[in-house]
Amino acid sequence: MDLSTADPDSVLDALDRRLVCALQVDGRAEPGRIAEVLGVSARTVTRRLGRMRQAGVLRVVRLPDVEDTAVGALLLRVRVLSGRVDAIARALADRPDVPFVDVMLGGHEVGAVVLTDAGSRDRLLYGQLPATGAVTETTTHAVLHAFADAGQWRAGYLTGEESAALARPAVPRPAAPPPLDDLDRALLERLGEDARQSHAVLAAAVGAPESTVRRRLHRLDGAGLLRTHATVDPRLLGLAVDANLWLDVPPGRIAEVGTVLARHPRVHGVFATSGPANLLATVFCPDHGELYRFLTDTLGPLGVTRAETTITARAVKRAGVLLRQPPGRP
After folding, report:
1. What does the DSSP 8-state code read for residue 132?
2. Within a domain: 188
3. 296 near 246, Cβ under 8 Å?
4. 316, 242 Cβ separation under 8 angstroms
5. Tens digits of per-residue pLDDT, 175-216?
6. pTM for this predicted structure
7. Could you read off the pLDDT of 277-329 as tens digits, one per residue?
8. Number of neighbours of residue 245 by Cβ within 10 angstroms
9. CA 15 to mean position of chain CA atoms
10. Residue 265 in domain
11. CATH number (domain holding residue 194)
């Protein structure tokens, strides 16, 4: 299967898309559990998921807690000289503290999310980016509050009953995060690369008994540290348009508008931000007509005073995963 040349709609059929959605609900769900809920055989689930993962279509990774990482994160809009956008996007994507990188339509802007400390942030913004000579302007927004992020988005190919059946039981989270030792950190690091590794594989990788790994993962899950993200090109789910909406909202309505947008099925991220706009909503739509209707029918009644729409031409990195590029791309 070659995603770079195939028609996206022909690559994932209806069952494939439902399997992706099952992993959006629980990225570590076992094939037998998925099979029971979706009404197919466990062998079919195993074969199809294996095919998608082997082809690079699908990858499931661990996401950090949204409040721990999103608040204070930087949203960068980097304007670049013509012909240099790929080099800047690649340089940002190579950084471990940059989990999301997009090239925007027009080829003169790169969008990125940066999770880093103040020293690395300053070196990037005031030293490394200007030193390239390719950057003409950088706009930086700080995330002040996260209403929803990519780990909470669902593509919508499951019924409510199916999603509820796949969801893990809610566990009361401790008031304070548990202290992490070297084994905890090693497990979380491995799951950040591939969240579907079995207990046996994880045990072998970290050099601990499988029973210990099971107990540790149960504790980490109870602390909310095992959120997962099923990384897939949205075009393969029938969503051809990926847009960022930079919104101006009256300050007294930011919480209301952010909460409403976070519940919308087209929205895969909503953040209150500093900078020229005070709210960012990221949306997936089947086509430009649907995006237009979202702007008019959804944003209009919410009292948004201004909306700047930027469309992603190419996703380079999502949730820490580098995405494959079409032939000819560096």
Report:
1. T
2. yes
3. no
4. no
5. 677 789 999 999 999 999 999 999 999 999 999 999 999 999
6. 0.85
7. 999 999 999 999 999 999 999 999 999 999 999 999 999 999 888 886 544 44
8. 23
9. 22
10. no
11. 1.10.10.10
